[in-house]
Amino acid sequence: MGILSNRVERSEIKAGDHLYTWRAVYTYSHHGIYVGGSKVVHFTRKKDSDPSNPDPDPLPSSCLTFPDCGFQRPDSGVILTCLDCFLKNGSLYQFEYGAHPSVFLAKLRGGTCTTAQADPPETVVHRAMYLLQNGFGNYDVFENNCEDFAIYCKTGLLPMDDPGIGRSGQASAVVGMPLAALLSTPFKLLVGGPVGMATVTAGMYCAGRYITDIGVRKDVVKVEVEGLAAHLGWRESGGERDLIDLSEEEVVVLEEEEQVDEEEESRRKRRRMI
């Protein structure tokens, strides 16, 4: 891998590597974890997703290489495919971990590297295979996409304060470019000509990408894959908890907690009246 390209040959990859390939003439990239045996675990929409919101990365209708290619649980977007079906005739690239900040900033295209350190390959493969059986929540192009899945498998890191903020450098780049252009507008009076303006915009874009990188952010924590559902089981929404794919036992626990909170609030009100 180099500064300008992370392209690799099939003979170079090993189990636990974070792979990606470009789609739609380099418009976006699709990411996954190589688990060995020419197979990749990656993340897309669930089989029963809304037909009006189609899968951004549909699989071929059949695979002549592996009979289990395309294994996917009905209620999960995590899928196992062969490397050929993952690539769809595209080139093979390897996501870079532990990138030096200067290297990270030199790669102007988001979704190719991170400053975060990767965990051992056996841990990465374990996470990917566990999530293949247990799911990774609902797919969201900005908050929970294929790159987010692969980065979690490699690092075990998740945002702590706001689970709605994804880890994807690709999504950050999409949002960051127009935002950088907007924020750099006041500098028109300070820089001369379009070259100066472009330089300021590019600088703000790179700075925005860097501070949102999973290896730089301070709001992330290490979450064991077995505890992932509990970590993401509910979110605060308007002061109330939204239940997301919880088991009956977990729902009962949350309802009991809510009841205790209500009783405590009722006691506080009575004390105020006295």
UniProtKB/TrEMBL annotation:
<feature type="compositionally biased region" description="Acidic residues">
    <location>
        <begin position="255"/>
        <end position="264"/>
    </location>
</feature>
<keyword id="KW-0012">Acyltransferase</keyword>
<keyword id="KW-0808">Transferase</keyword>
<dbReference type="InterPro" id="IPR007053">
    <property type="entry name" value="LRAT_dom"/>
</dbReference>
<protein>
    <submittedName>
        <fullName>Lecithin retinol acyltransferase</fullName>
    </submittedName>
</protein>
<feature type="region of interest" description="Disordered">
    <location>
        <begin position="255"/>
        <end position="274"/>
    </location>
</feature>
<dbReference type="Pfam" id="PF04970">
    <property type="entry name" value="LRAT"/>
</dbReference>
<dbReference type="GO" id="GO:0016746">
    <property type="term" value="F:acyltransferase activity"/>
</dbReference>
<feature type="domain" description="LRAT">
    <location>
        <begin position="20"/>
        <end position="162"/>
    </location>
</feature>
